[in-house]
Backbone:
């Protein structure tokens, strides 16, 4: 499958990885829109949030917890940050592998 995030997960192309666990990989966005801009990407290829099924419930919870953990690791936990999921073309999604943007840090 020609998916750039699957290739990053399989380490076929490099990324600046912040943390990895059983469910997800977190790496720095290549075109950051905030001083700290991370992407939390589930290992399972799911195109968009619309494609998340009832039996992905555990995964959905784990990627949210992973976002929190990554924010802490990058030192923006206390100062604050925001999460964003773009869904579909109309939602501004460019990479069709589900991901959570984690953005924060002072300018
Ligand atoms: P979205 O618009 O929600 O699909 O966001 C896709 C994000 O992936 C954008 O913010 C891009 O800058 C980022 N991105 C695309 N390719 C890479 C890459 N190879 N490594 C890191 N981030 C990437
Ligand atoms: Zn993928």
Residues:
């Amino acid at each position: 499958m020609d998916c750039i995030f699957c290739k990053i997960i399989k380490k076929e192309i490099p990324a600046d990885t912040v943390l990895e666990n059983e469910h997800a990989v977190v790496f720095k966005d290549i075109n950051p829109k905030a001083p700290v801009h991370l992407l939390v990407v589930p290992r399972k290829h799911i195109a968009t949030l619309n494609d998340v099924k009832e039996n992905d419930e555990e995964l959905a919870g784990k990627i949210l917890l992973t976002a929190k953990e990554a924010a802490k690791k990058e030192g923006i936990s206390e100062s604050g940050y925001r999460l964003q999921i773009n869904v579909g073309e109309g939602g501004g999604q460019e990479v069709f592998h589900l991901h959570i943007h984690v953005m924060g840090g002072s300018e």
